[in-house]
């Protein structure tokens, strides 16, 4: 039943909205992992990020795409929790368990074992519009024990204009989605996170909408 | 057939024959040179098939549906502009108001309110957007933002809506009908793009504006203008109320302004250091890349025709 609602939600609402209200310039879509277990590591500027990434997958596969999201935000009331867990299918992350990584990532590991594709936003929060904040090391904890796991970087640009943090009103903009090459494994957490960050910055250069940001806003 | 006026019907058949010829040439090229990659050419021609199919479908539909289609075209063009041009985070609300100008502008078209159709954007929208911006209160970058926003609205809403208004003019050439005017405008504009390209490819030597568009040459431009002027003179009496001589003038007007529209959008892209304005049409780039010349030719052709015959 929930899977049916999920397909309905994406078919009737998300996909048409992404197609017409937004309009995407997708580059190298073929590099997206088609099958799990895999991780998609994307930059995060808007709630739309998750919906846009999920809309790139066919309806038959959407239930395999699992965004990792903050429990304190998305489970804060009953309605939002039901929607996040059942329609979007998030994996809630209890940010207060931060000391005990095995508890923190238990659900993620279960999903990966199940062959799901995890959507991760290593910045942790949406931050300022169209800016890449420092990446958190969480991804590395997750892949430490999985050297062969495919981690694909995705840079999105323009969504921080369409619906930035703290805004309720949606404004139509074309957005770029650039998919990069899988990031090679590295046992050193800092090097690994730096390579994710570098990969994202490199992909930004391919974004058509990159010039639409006014410098004054960045200060 | 479907109550299509005969001249417009033959024109559509002619365009389809041109497309079939194009597809066959592409296919022969591929057979002759199996090593060469013709992917972009193939995508271009495929996209042409789609665009022609959509355009003809829309033109044969009831006028209200055609007008809604052109409103959608304006929306996509404006969205492309707003997505590539620098705008401030504080401008989001103003952009939303700018988008709202589209349904209103096309409502004036649909209700045949000519005066409002003409002045709505250059007067009311022009005065309203800065007022809205003042209430938001961000003055840093105010001039540049309001300038770019209104410029984009003029090009993608006011100019494009002239194509839709052609459908509302009283029919004066019964055999071509209202859609004859639109077919003429779009065909001659696109034909001009092709002619300038072919003349430039075969004879091109002297660059016309190397800083903007290094591939554009005087030979291509002049060859295009002459060819299009001649063809237009012969086609105009068939599809429009224009006489042959007026058709020659319309052809020259479309050829020159089509070129200008093309290089104006090229300058925008060059300023932003991007090659295309989007990825909406495979093989062509964005919508603006395709309708760049039409943005200029549509209002100029419209008012030339209106002055002489309405």
Folded structure, characterized:
The complex is a heterodimer of chains A (219) and B (310). Chain A is built from ten helices and seven strands. Chain A is α/β, with parallel strands linked by helices and 219 residues long. The mean pLDDT of chain A is 87. Chain A is globular. A seven-stranded mixed sheet of chain A has the order 1-7-6-2-5-3-4, with helices on both faces. In chain A, 39% of the residues lie in helices and 16% in strands. Chain B has 310 residues and is mostly helical. Helix content of chain B is 77%, strand content 0%. Chain B has helices at 6-32, 39-60, 63-84, 92-110, 114-136, 142-166, 177-203, 218-239, 244-272, 287-309. The longest helix of chain B has 29 residues, at 244-272. Chain B is globular and about 60 Å long. The model of chain B has no long low-confidence stretch (mean pLDDT 92). The A-B interface holds A 23, 25-27, 129, 158, 161, 164, 167, 169, 171-175, 208-209, 211-214, 216-217 and B 75-76, 79-80, 82-89, 92-93, 95-96, 99, 140-141, 145, 272-274, 276-280.
Relative strand content of chain B = under 5%
- List unreliable stretches of 5+ residues of chain A: none
Order of helices and strands of chain B: HHHHHHHHHH
What composes the largest sheet of chain A? Answer: 7 strands, mixed
Instruction: Output the strand order for the largest sheet of chain A.
Output: 1-7-6-2-5-3-4
Please report the number of helical segments of chain B. 10
String of helices and strands of chain A: HEEHEHHEHHEHEHEHH
Secondary-structure-based class of chain B equals mainly alpha
The level of helicity of chain B is: over 70%
Largest sheet of chain B: none
């Amino acid at each position: 039943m929930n899977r049916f609602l999920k397909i309905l939600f994406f078919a009737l609402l998300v996909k048409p909205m992404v197609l017409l209200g937004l309009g995407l310039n997708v580059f190298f879509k073929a590099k997206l992992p088609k099958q799990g277990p895999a991780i998609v590591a994307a930059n995060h500027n808007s709630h739309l990020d998750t919906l846009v990434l999920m809309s790139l997958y066919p309806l038959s596969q959407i239930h395999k795409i699992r965004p990792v999201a903050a429990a304190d935000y998305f489970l804060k009331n009953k309605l939002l929790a039901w929607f996040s867990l059942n329609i979007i299918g998030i994996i809630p992350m209890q940010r207060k368990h931060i000391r005990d990584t095995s508890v923190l990532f238990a659900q993620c590991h279960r999903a990966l074992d199940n062959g799901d594709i995890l959507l991760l936003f290593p910045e942790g929060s949406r931050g300022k519009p169209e800016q890449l904040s420092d990446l958190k090391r969480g991804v590395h904890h997750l892949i430490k024990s999985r050297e062969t796991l495919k981690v694909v970087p995705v840079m999105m640009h323009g969504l921080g204009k369409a619906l930035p943090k703290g805004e309720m009103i949606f404004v139509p903009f074309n957005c770029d989605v650039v998919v990069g090459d899988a990031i090679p494994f590295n046992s050193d957490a800092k090097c690994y996170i730096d390579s994710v960050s570098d990969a994202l910055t490199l992909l930004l250069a391919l974004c058509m909408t990159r010039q639409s940001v006014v410098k004054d806003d960045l200060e | 057939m479907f109550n299509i006026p005969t001249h417009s019907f033959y024109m559509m058949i002619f365009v389809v024959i041109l497309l079939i010829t194009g597809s066959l040439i592409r296919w022969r090229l591929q057979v002759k040179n199996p090593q060469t990659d013709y992917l972009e050419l193939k995508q271009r021609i495929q996209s042409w098939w789609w665009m022609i199919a959509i355009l003809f479908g829309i033109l044969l539909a009831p006028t209200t549906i055609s007008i809604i289609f052109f409103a959608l075209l304006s929306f996509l063009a404006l969205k492309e502009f707003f997505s590539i041009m620098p705008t401030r985070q504080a401008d989001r609300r103003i952009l939303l108001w700018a988008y709202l100008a589209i349904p209103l502008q096309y409502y004036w078209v649909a209700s045949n309110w000519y005066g409002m159709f003409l002045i709505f954007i250059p007067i009311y929208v022009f005065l309203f957007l800065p007022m809205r911006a003042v209430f938001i209160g961000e003055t840093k970058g105010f001039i540049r933002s309001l300038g770019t926003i209104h410029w984009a609205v003029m090009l993608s809403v006011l100019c494009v809506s002239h194509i839709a208004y052609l459908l509302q003019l009283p029919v004066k050439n019964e055999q071509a009908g209202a859609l004859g005017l639109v077919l003429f405008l779009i065909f001659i504009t696109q034909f001009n793009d092709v002619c300038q390209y072919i003349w430039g490819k075969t004879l091109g030597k002297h660059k016309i504006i190397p800083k903007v568009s290094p591939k554009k040459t005087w030979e291509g431009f002049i060859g295009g203008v002459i060819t299009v002027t001649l063809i237009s003179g012969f086609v105009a009496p068939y599809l429009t109320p224009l006489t042959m001589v007026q058709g020659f003038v319309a052809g020259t007007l479309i050829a020159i302004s089509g070129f200008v529209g093309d290089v104006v959008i090229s300058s925008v892209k060059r300023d932003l250091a991007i090659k295309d304005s989007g990825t909406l049409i495979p093989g062509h780039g964005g919508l603006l890349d395709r309708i760049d010349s039409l943005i200029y030719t549509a209002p100029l052709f419209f008012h030339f025709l209106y002055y002489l015959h309405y």
